[in-house]
Amino acid sequence: MDLLTRLRTKKILLVDDDEWIRDSMGAFFDSEGCFFKAVESAEAGIDALREKQYDIIIADYRLPGMDGLAFFDRIRRSHTASLKILITAHGDRTLAERSAAAGVDDYIAKPFQMQDIETSLTRLMNGRSK
Questions:
Q1: Which of 15, 53, 75, 124 could in theory staple to 59 by disulfide, Cβ–Cβ 3.0 to 4.6 A?
Q2: Which residue ranges in the chain fall short of pLDDT 50?
Q3: What are phi and psi of 26, to 5 degrees?
Q4: Tens-digit pLDDT profile for residues 116-129
Q5: What pLDDT does 16 receive?
Q6: 6 contacts: CB under 8 Å, gap ≥ 6
């Protein structure tokens, strides 16, 4: 089964303050028939996770208020089954190590293309059964 067919059965949450990224990723996932929700802050992400369980959580590192790493650290124990991806333009080796400690499954540097997200999701979904 290909990735996009598998994603149609998953709920995807994006936490990013960049409207262009939210709109672009939303258009992509919506066009593929996926359940997709985008919010612009970690706090809104936490609220969304209180309302619904998400299979895939993608968050930017630089967010207003709580950053993406603190967000993932905060939800780490309550959302262990979710695949977690951190995206950032401000990363380095230390951030990559800290993200792993916060329960992040993958780390993608900006700028990225949807193919990078697809590659990450394919690898993660093949490596972990959901």
A1: 15
A2: 129-130
A3: -60, -45
A4: 999 999 999 988 53
A5: 97
A6: 125
| Four-residue CA torsion sign, 97, 99, 104, 109 | negative
pTM more than 0.90: yes
The answer to whether the Cα torsion of 57, 108, 42, 32 is positive or negative is negative
SS (H, E, C) 19-65: HHHHHHHHHHHHHCCCEEEEECCHHHHHHHHHHCCCCEEEEECCCCC
> Measured between alpha carbons, how far is 13 from 23 in angstroms, rounded to an integer?
13
Q: 66-95 burial, b for 16+ CB within 10 Å, e for fewer?
A: bbbbebbbbbeeebeebbbbbbbeebeeeb
Residue 116 CA to residue 94 CA, distance in Å, equals 21
Q: Does domain 3-127 have CATH number 3.40.50.2300?
A: yes
